[in-house]
Specification:
Blueprint: H1 3-10, H2 13-39, H3 41-48, H4 52-55, H5 57-77, H6 82-102, H7 106-134, H8 140-169, H9 171-192, H10 204-211, H11 214-234, H12 237-245, H13 249-273, H14 284-299, H15 303-331, H16 336-364, H17 367-385
């Protein structure tokens, strides 16, 4: 029985799209929670008595635990119904936000961010496989685009609102404001998600089997380089805008809003134009975002030029997720949970390394060195991807 047939029997179309929307909101709050320190980096560092580079590691620690969770989630969850696994992860997200808002010191912050990493890794490892069960096969790219619309929402509003509200109310209050949204999403999961029994017990052997596929391993590395480039730059965007462009909090919030709003264009475009010919699109994220980062170094003193480049970067940032997850669904759909676990682990390793390397370059050299590191990773991704054909499953 095919996956598409299984979905049509198990889930009605109305219930399926309601569940997709519930997951879309979860994506929005996960992304907002994970990367909120980007827009609040300076006040958080001051409030906790740490450097900006150290505070940036609040992102890297969540990345580390996301890697561990993404690899272990299908094994630890075993035969548990995937609906209740997602509900439990959302409850843990709520607890993490409360702990961040109350953190008296840097150590407690890192513990809370580690818990967030478990939520991030667990959710993303299961998300694509769950989407593939909620809608017919032909609707998977559309459903993925809708789910990643949550990423665009978070990118559009979380960073600028976090920056603005952080200046008005304080950075702790920003995290408190997220908690009722997560609580509402928790209830929505319970109502909207259908029963999703586990399809057999996953183990590390299943991950290794997928990783042994040469085309998938190459694609995984290319995705790592693409995301590593993006987050080496994005994690330290606020210091660049403050030090190089010379903006205040109000202008900073506007620039972050432009970046985020452009994400809606990227998500819409990816959902609208993605089809079976995924290979030519795989290098686009690294090419466009790496080029925009390089140009930022050249014209960074101009607010207008920076705004335009951030809009280009933001559009491609959201499109990147849809492009690579569509690639995964088309080339490893027979082992969706295992492939999803590996993809999330690879992405989170990239985010972790991007935050660590970018922070070291920032504290040790300059913000320009951080951005150049991002460009170097993008160039490596482009070289590996080429025309993308060697990242596709061989025809049978």
């Amino acid at each position: 029985m095919s996956d598409a047939t299984y979905v049509n029997i198990e889930v009605s179309p109305g219930a399926a799209w309601g569940a997709v929307l519930s997951m879309t909101l979860c994506v929005a709050v996960l992304i907002a929670s994970e990367f909120m320190p980007v827009s609040l980096l300076t006040p958080m560092a001051q409030g906790l008595g740490a450097t900006e580079g150290q505070t940036g590691q609040a992102i890297s620690i969540s990345g580390l635990f996301a890697v561990l969770a993404s690899v272990m989630i299908t094994t630890v969850a075993g035969r548990l119904n995937r609906k209740w696994v997602l509900v439990a992860l959302t409850a843990l997200l709520l607890s993490s936000l409360v702990l961040v808002a109350m953190a008296p010191n840097f150590t407690v912050l890192m513990i809370a961010r580690a818990a967030l990493g478990i939520c991030v890794g667990g959710f993303w490892a299961l998300a694509t496989a769950v989407i593939m069960r909620l809608v017919p096969e032909r609707d998977v790219p559309r459903a993925l685009s809708l789910m990643f619309g949550g990423q665009a929402i978070a990118a559009a509003f979380a960073a600028p609102m976090g920056s603005y509200l952080g200046g008005m109310l304080g950075w702790r209050e920003v995290f408190w404001l997220l908690t009722p949204i997560v609580a509402a999403n928790l209830v929505w999961h319970v109502i909207a998600l259908p029963s999703l029994p586990a399809r057999g017990r996953q183990n590390l052997g299943a991950l290794i089997e997928v990783l042994r596929r040469p085309y998938f391993a190459r694609g995984l590395l290319a995705a790592m380089l693409s995301w590593g480039s993006a987050f080496t730059m994005f994690t330290y965007l606020r210091p660049f805008l403050e030090q190089v462009t010379g903006v205040d909090v109000s202008v900073l919030s506007v620039l972050l809003l432009l970046l985020g709003l452009a994400g809606f264009v990227g998500t819409w475009g990816a959902g609208r134009f993605l089809g079976n010919r995924i290979a030519p699109l795989l290098m686009l994220p690294a090419l466009v975002m790496g080029g925009a980062t390089l140009l930022l170094l050249a014209v960074g003193i101009s607010v207008l030029a920076v705004g335009a480049l951030l809009m280009v970067w933001g559009a491609m940032n959201t499109a990147m997720s849809v492009i690579w997850m569509t690639w995964m669904s088309q080339n490893a759909g027979d082992a969706a949970e295992a492939a999803g676990s590996l993809m999330v682990a690879a992405i989170q390793v990239s985010i972790l390394l991007g935050a660590v390397i970018g922070g070291l370059l920032l504290d040790g050299i300059s913000i320009s060195a951080t951005f150049l590191g991002s460009v170097a990773l993008a160039a490596a991704a482009i070289a590996l991807i080429g025309n993308g054909q060697h990242l596709l499953r061989p025809a049978r």
